[in-house]
Amino acid sequence: MASHEPPTQLNSALVSLRRALVYAFLFSFAINLLSLLMPIYSLQVFDRVMTSRSLDTLIGLSIVVLIGYVFYGALSAIRAAVIARIVEWLEHHMAPKLLEVSIGAASETNMPSTAQPLRELATIKNFIAGSTPILMDIPFSAIFLLVIYMINPILGFIALIGIVLMCISALVNEYATRKPLMRATERQTESMINADMLGRQAETIQAMGMMRAVLGRWGKQNEQGLSIQEQAQQRSAIVQGVSKSLRLILQLLVIGVGAVLALEQQMSMGGLVAASILVARALSPFEGIIMVWKQLIGARDAYHRLQQLLRHAPGKRGDTALPAPTGALSVEGLYYSPAKTPILRGIGFSLNAGESLGIIGPSAAGKSTLAKCLVGIFPPTHGNVRLDGADVYHWARHDFGQYVGYLPQTVELFPGTIKENIARMNGAIDDSDVVAAAQKAGVHELILSLPQAYDTKYITGQATLSPGQKQRIGLARALYGNVRFVVLDEPNSNLDGDGERALMQTIQSLKQSKVTLVVVAHRPSILQTVDKIMMVRAGTVEAFGLRDEVMARYSAAGRQKMQPAEGGENG
Question: Which of 227-241, 327-341, 529-543 is predicted with the least confidence, judged by mean pLDDT?
Answer without folding.
Answer: 227-241
